[in-house]
C-alpha cells in the first residue's frame, strides 16, 4: 500500500480533527463540529484500513488491540486533544518507517473519535428531552 495515501489520510484526519476542536473551543456551531468530527473519523478509518492492508497478519494479532484504555468514558476536549497527539505521532512514525507504531496510534485515535461521536450523540439526545 502506498505510504503517500496513508500520509494523505492522516493529514486530512488531522485537519478535520483540528477544525472540530477549534469549533468546540470557540463555542461554535454543533453541526460544524459534528461535520468536522465525522470527516476526521472517516479519514482516520481509511488510514487504519490502509495500514492494516500494509501490515496484513501482524495487524490482526497485535496485543495492544485488547487494551481497554480507550474504552473509558471520554470528554470532548481531552479526547480530541489526545486524538490530535496520536495522529501527529502516527504520521511521524509513518515517515520514520515504523508502520506498526503508526497503526497502533491511528487505531487508538479512531477509537477515541468513535467515543467522541457517541458522546456527541448522547448529548444531543439528552438535549431533546
What this model shows, in words?
This protein is mainly alpha-helical and 129 residues long. The protein has a single domain, classed as Up-down Bundle (Four Helix Bundle (Hemerythrin (Met), subunit A)). The chain has helices at residues 3-25, 30-55, 57-60, 76-96, 99-128. Helix 1 (3-25) runs antiparallel to helix 2 and helix 2 (30-55) runs antiparallel to helix 5. The protein starts with a helix and ends with a helix.
Notable characteristics:
129 residues; mainly alpha; Four Helix Bundle (Hemerythrin (Met), subunit A); 5 helices; elongated
Outline type: elongated
User: What is the helix/strand order?
Assistant: HHHHH
Compute the separation of the termini in Å: 47 Å
Indicate the proportion of strand residues. under 5%
| Helix/strand structural class | mainly alpha
CATH architecture: Up-down Bundle
Rounded to an integer, what's the Rg over CA atoms?
A: 15 Å
- Biggest sheet layout: none
Task: Specify the number of helices.
Answer: 5
Q: Tell me, what is the CATH class? A: Mainly Alpha
Short description:
This protein is mainly alpha-helical and 129 residues long.
List the topology elements.
Layout: H1 3-25, H2 30-55, H3 57-60, H4 76-96, H5 99-128
Helix pairs in contact: 1-2, 1-4, 2-5, 4-5
Amino acid at each position: 500500500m502506498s505510504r503517500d495515501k496513508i500520509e494523505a489520510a492522516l493529514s486530512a484526519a488531522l485537519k478535520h480533527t483540528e477544525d472540530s476542536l477549534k469549533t468546540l473551543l470557540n463555542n461554535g456551531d454543533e453541526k460544524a463540529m459534528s461535520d468536522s468530527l465525522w470527516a476526521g473519523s472517516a479519514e482516520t478509518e481509511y488510514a487504519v484500513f490502509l495500514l492494516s492492508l500494509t501490515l496484513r497478519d501482524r495487524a490482526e494479532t497485535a496485543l495492544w488491540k485488547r487494551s481497554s484504555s480507550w474504552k473509558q468514558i471520554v470528554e470532548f476536549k481531552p479526547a480530541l486533544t489526545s486524538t490530535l497527539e496520536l495522529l501527529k505521532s502516527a504520521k511521524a512514525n509513518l515517515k520514520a518507517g515504523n508502520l506498526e507504531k503508526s497503526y497502533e496510534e491511528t487505531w487508538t485515535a479512531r477509537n477515541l473519535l468513535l467515543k467522541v461521536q457517541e458522546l456527541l450523540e448522547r448529548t444531543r439526545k439528552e438535549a431533546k428531552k
